[in-house]
What does this fold into?
Amino acid sequence: MDFDLSEDQKILQTSVREFLDKECPKDKVRELEEDEQGYDTEMWKKMAELEWMGVVFPEEYGGTEGDFIDLMILAEEMGRYILPSPFFSTVVLSSLPILKYGNGEQKEKFLPKIANGKEIWTLALMESSATYEASDVKLRATPEGEAYLLEGAKLFVPYAHVADHLLVVARTSEEEKPEDGITVFIVDLASSTGIEVEVIPTAAHDKQCEVRFDRVKVPRGNVLGDVGRGWDVVNFIIQKGVVLKCAEMLGGAQAVLEMTNDYAKERVQFERPIGSFQAIQHKLADMFTDVEGLRYLVYEAAWKINIGSPSDLLISMAKAKANEVYQRTCIGGIRIHGAIGFTREEDIGLYYLRTKAAEFALGDTGFHKERIATELERS
Amino acid sequence: MDFKFGEKEEALRKEIREFAREELPPGWLAVMLEEESRDEDWAFAMSISKKLSERGWLTMSWPEEYGGRGSSLWEQLVYLEESGYWGIPGTMMGISGVAWVGPSLMMYGSEEQKEKHLPLIASGEPDGVWCTGYSEPNAGSDFANIQTRAVKEGDEYVINGQKTWTSAAHRSRWCWLAVVTDPNAPKKHQRISVFIVDMKSKGVTVNPLVNYAGYHIFNEVFFDDVRVPASNLVGEENRGWYQLMTSLAYERGSLGPAGYGYNKRILDELVRYAKENNLFQKHDIRCKLADMAIEVETQRMLASQTIWKMSKGDMPTYEPSRDKVFNDQVQERLAITGTEILGAYSQMDPLHRDSRWSKIRGCVESLYWLFPGISISAGTDEIEKNIIGQFGLELPRSY
Ligand SMILES: Cc1cc2nc3c(=O)[nH]c(=O)nc-3n(C[C@H](O)[C@H](O)[C@H](O)COP(=O)(O)OP(=O)(O)OC[C@H]3O[C@@H](n4cnc5c(N)ncnc54)[C@H](O)[C@@H]3O)c2cc1C
Ligand SMILES: Cc1cc2nc3c(=O)[nH]c(=O)nc-3n(C[C@H](O)[C@H](O)[C@H](O)COP(=O)(O)OP(=O)(O)OC[C@H]3O[C@@H](n4cnc5c(N)ncnc54)[C@H](O)[C@@H]3O)c2cc1C
It folds into this structure.
């Protein structure tokens, strides 16, 4: 067993950290919350130059042939700096399924543009029921000639307002099992008519959108994977995406723990640092153990994916734990900060305001506990 | 990053499972702290100690010259996990020859002490069974506050005082005893020494203390003018505290894997029980089982991380304390949630585990009755959290 990153991975981690330290201070985060686009196009270009978007792509698509652990390192650091960017929606939610399910033509056409930062992508999955159950995929795709017509609405679609392409999860037929009859479409926003995008006013101003489809025409060639087998694609996205979302949350929780611990050493009340009071020490000790436990659970789940034997059990364990730990760490952290933790100037609130987006992305705690129970029952 | 075991470890795991199948009665489920209570349980535990010794497992990480087989920390982790899981009794040689008397002697003991005691512990014989005399009525968490005195007279020391909560003292041949040798030292940590005391010595009295569930686990031990040879002093006089702090870290390092193994078994038994009784249909029970599974797997990773750190040659600092607290939390959850799953059947007397009303051989409610005590032993959670704060988070000391 080896709990350490390899030398190359450590170099990657350091370089990502140095970049974000410089490019993404918290004032930048605050500024981007108010920005209409919600990300910094110059920074995005630099990220592409650093070859982050194509980190796991083969060379022929402009990638650097890294592995899943490299991607996890990126996600963890982005979570640590709460980088506002369409990286997750483009690379994790969209490019990974294209890489896995796309045909040769689709990969050649789309992946190089993702790798060089020219295009922004996102995934339109959730609907008004706001869950990840197959039965809740209701947006209709009806065949018409050489195309399908999309009709319906999607919710909480990250960065749809600036996206070039969407992956849309739609129902192409009604079957006995809700998992059947689902199809994933690649939709080109610029060339489509009938799409309306509206940014939802979320607490983190993190640019999640409602996307409405009014008889939007999508050519048959834009089906990703097989018609009717779209739920496989969704499951694949959930599997990989969950672990990377967990890595982001881990990075966030680690940052909150560190800033709180630092604060507890500096803040003096009753003539001594508040970190010398046991009430504070024990809370911090609990937060510390929480974050370390989460770390190794996430690493284990990621490692399993990396060696080609993903474990749904471990993946769901990691997400259920991440949901609870990220929230608990933020709340404990704010309390230890006292009133200053309640202000816009202090960084900790920025993390807290992101807990719910992360918790409900790719399955809430109940969803994942249900999956764990199913695995236990089967064991 | 790599989270799989090597072939050697996997082979050992298989061997231990076969051993457990062959040597333990069918359907065997252990309860923590149970083996030293009743005579027949103790006799069975000692018979297994002997067999573990014959396999070279009892003290596997010790060098061969002292009766070990020089196993790696990873092999030891597997052994601890599996013995916890299958409830293999007799792995400790009391409290505890294997876990810290042996390793401490290797670090600080004289040649004579090593040659005499290490092979005795490794043999799995009753003469290798130890108890640990640290706590006293006025020295629990504040262990350095002990009063028991040892005074040098010629080539002997004369010991007077009282120890309490001494587990397995009624089963032990030897006591690993902390005493005061320099009452005038400027700091109370600088006055402590460790002695090897033969429990058969004149002046040693052992009085049982029975816990609320009816087990005889710990005792009071009185020392009245007990004479021990000066050669039984371990390491340097008045350096006892520092020696013990180092060896305590090792003790706690073995706690994680064994605790994980034990907890995983309870979880697996509860899952099986839930399946057999159609409890998986209930949403709240599904959630409870999922919750426990997450925590048990987290415990496995934390415990392994500590061993990984040690395997690189780094001294664990706060990690064993973290793992101790975590084990207590997991056991609390398993006990509370487990008894909720068993319902009214969980109110059984742990001394009647064979009763026909007991489910899962009473191991779930036994954990429930015992976990508060287990969590106090070997350092309370509050004390362990102080250590995490001091060494893991570098917070200023509170006292
Ligand atoms: C919404 C809001 C409205 C407020 N309105 C007013 C107002 O109208 N007028 C006004 O005067 N003030 C007001 N306050 C200030 C409030 O009274 C203080 O925030 C509060 O007393 C805590 O002080 P602090 O923020 O400086 O935190 P600190 O005292 O620095 O505490 C930081 C952390 O250390 C802990 N801590 C401190 N000392 C100890 C100790 N001895 N033992 C254990 N833990 C300790 C605290 O519990 C906390 O977790 C307001 C605060 C808020 C959040
Ligand atoms: C089952 C069992 C087996 C045992 N076996 C042995 C044995 O074999 N040999 C042996 O020597 N001892 C043994 N002990 C004793 C054990 O080590 C002590 O019980 C333990 O160290 C706590 O001491 P105490 O019971 O005196 O509690 P106290 O130290 O009086 O503590 C009471 C409470 O105060 C809290 N507290 C104390 N100090 C602090 C502090 N600084 N900060 C915050 N909270 C604090 C504690 O956490 C606890 O909650 C055993 C105990 C048990 C329960």
Observations:
- The longest strand of chain B covers residues 216-229.
